[in-house]
Amino acid sequence: MHKKVYLVLCFLFATITSAQFHEIGVFLGGSNYIGDVGTDRYLDPNEFAYGFIYKWNITDRYSLRGGVTFTTLKENEYNNNDINRFRRSYKVENPFQEVTGGVEINFKKFNLHDPELSFTPYIYYGLSYFRYEQFYITPNGTIDSPNYNSYGKDREIGIPIIIGFKTNPNPFFVIGFEIGARYSMTDNLDGSNPQNEFAENLNYKFGNLANNDWYIFTGITISFTFGDLPCYCKE
User: Fold this and answer.
1) Phi, psi dihedral angles at 211 (to 5 degrees)
2) If exposure means fewest CB atoms within 10 Å of the residue's CB, which of 2, 42, 161, 230 is most exposed?
3) Residue 235 lies in a domain
4) In this predicted structure, what is the pLDDT of residue 127?
């Protein structure tokens, strides 16, 4: 009886781990910000972004994924179809670090054990935790020379949604292209809705205060696979 139970458990373990590769790699691309300062373009990478990713491929359809990304969110209003923003000429330059974790789902089976070339679209969703600079903007006499007043770092939660396409030229590495939008739980990545008491008292707020800010990462991922875990069952 014990032998039969052992063989069944071993079979189940072998089924799960038959596609159980780990991946570790890098993200290289660009970032842009969407909010109350800047252009009216939603996809406009304008600053270098880089990071590191890790995936645990539980099956050929589902993976647990985590990563860390670094960039500076930059925007200015000099190149803008909105004449009011162009005249205002505000800008954003906010150092930014993000940690994220979630689930990546392949649209088709993506078996890293297969020596032949394979590919699949995928979608990723999860949670992010990021660190950014808080500031508020004061006109300084003329609207053409505003002051950007920093009052410390803050941390906040975001909701990332990524769509991408990936391929494995061989079983040892994977190349992907992806676009990831993050909805942040703050409206002050750009200084438009400061929470500082001094800024609140002087009403240094502008824009649509009912909408939070977004930020976008666009780029490629290059990851290397490791950790094939076969099950050796004895008779």
Assistant:
1) -115, 135
2) 2
3) no
4) 97
Residues 21-34 have pLDDT tens digits of 899 999 999 999 99
Query: Which helix H or strand E contains 224, and what residues bound it?
Result: strand 214-226
Q: pTM of the entire structure? A: 0.84
The span from the CA of 192 to the CA of 156, in Å, is 16
Residue 207 gets the label, from left (phi > 0), alpha (psi -120 to 50) or beta, of left
10 Å Cβ neighbour count for 30? 17
| DSSP-H helix ranges across 18-168 | 83-88
Can you give the residue range of the structural domain that contains 176? 23-226
Task: Extract the tokens encoding 35.
Answer: 């909010």
Token pair listed for 100: 């994220």
CB 81 within 8 A of CB 114: no
What tokens were used for 53? Answer: 């990713």
Q: What is the CATH number of the domain that holds 198?
A: 2.40.160.20
Q: What is the pLDDT of residues 205-232, one digit of tens each?
A: 888 888 999 999 999 999 999 876 444 3
**Could you tell me if residue 10 is inside a domain?**
no
Which letter does DSSP use for residue 112 in this model?
T
Structural domain tally of the chain? 1
